[in-house]
Amino acid sequence: MPATIECLSDQSIILITIEGRYTIEDARDIWAQTNDLIDTLEGDVYRIVDVCKMEISFGDMLAITQEIIKGQPGTAVDPRIQTIYIGHNPMNRIIRDKIYFETQAMVHIPTFCTLNEALEYIRRNRVTS
Fold first, then answer.
1. Residues 41-78: pLDDT tens digits?
2. Range 3-128: architecture per CATH
């Protein structure tokens, strides 16, 4: 699998880094692992997904988006987590925008250039929550 998954359990953050070719099968594996990790974390859970080096075909992008919109556990529409993207991969932008549209603006996925920016966003949100 082209992804590494790290759990910052003391902060209830799941950090996923995707490098190389990414398929629907890889996405399903990540969602299953995310689902398992959510049950071990307390409080607001954030998932940061670094897509800077992700390579994805248009077909896989469409398949992944359709699976997410169905509401599969561990996906970006799972109400137990807030997903954040790092990187401005064009295909990932399509996924993010389609999720936003299909959920009638109920699921917004913030996107940042760096991990530090994403962590700062989480810190600010936790202070104001």
1. 988 999 999 999 999 999 999 999 999 989 889 999 99
2. 2-Layer Sandwich (3.30)
